[in-house]
Design goal:
single chain; mainly alpha; rod-shaped
């Protein structure tokens, strides 16, 4: 009552190796499929877009820093301009006050430096002191008033007289 063993097929390893090699070769061709290749192309495109976005962000940061610098500079210049206008207004009031001084011994009020607002020192105390001022003093005072220092000695003295508020009539 022994039964005969059923003969079952055994694997052929050489055939298996051939089939696996063929499968591997064919699987390698999958990279040529548009759907697989497109995925890589999409990834490359996304990486390119990310690089461009980073460059745009860097450019934006640089522009923002430049705008901040220009804004600060502009704010400082506007502030200095406002101060200068205030000092010029003060000098206009002083000039009006000095315009009544006609005699050489008449006292005059010193003008202020248009950059600092400080009294210009030394400053001629009287009309006669203005007439006797040296060329160096005239140039210094004109400079502190923000006025040109070019021209002849006579032209500069006339410019100083007008700046102080003095009339050019005989004194």
């Amino acid at each position: 009552m022994d039964e005969m063993p059923v003969h079952l097929p055994t694997p052929n390893f050489d055939v298996m190796i051939q089939h696996l090699q063929g499968f591997t070769d064919e699987f390698g061709h999958c990279r040529n499929l548009p759907s697989v290749d497109t995925g890589a192309a999409v990834l490359d495109a996304i990486n390119g877009i990310n690089a461009q976005l980073e460059q745009l962000n860097q450019n934006q940061r640089q522009l923002s820093a430049q705008v901040d610098g220009v804004s600060r500079d502009l704010g400082n210049k506007i502030q200095r301009l406002g101060q200068r206008l205030g000092y010029s207004d003060l000098n206009s009031m002083i000039r009006l006050e000095n315009s009544s001084a006609t005699r050489s011994n008449a006292e005059i009020t010193p003008l202020v430096n248009v950059e600092t607002g400080e009294d210009i020192t030394p400053f001629p105390a009287t009309v006669g002191d203005v007439d006797a001022a040296s060329a160096a003093d005239i140039n210094r005072i004109l400079s502190e008033l923000g006025l040109p220092t070019n021209g002849t000695a006579r032209a500069k003295k006339q410019r100083l007289n007008r700046a102080i508020g003095l009339t050019l009539q005989k004194r």
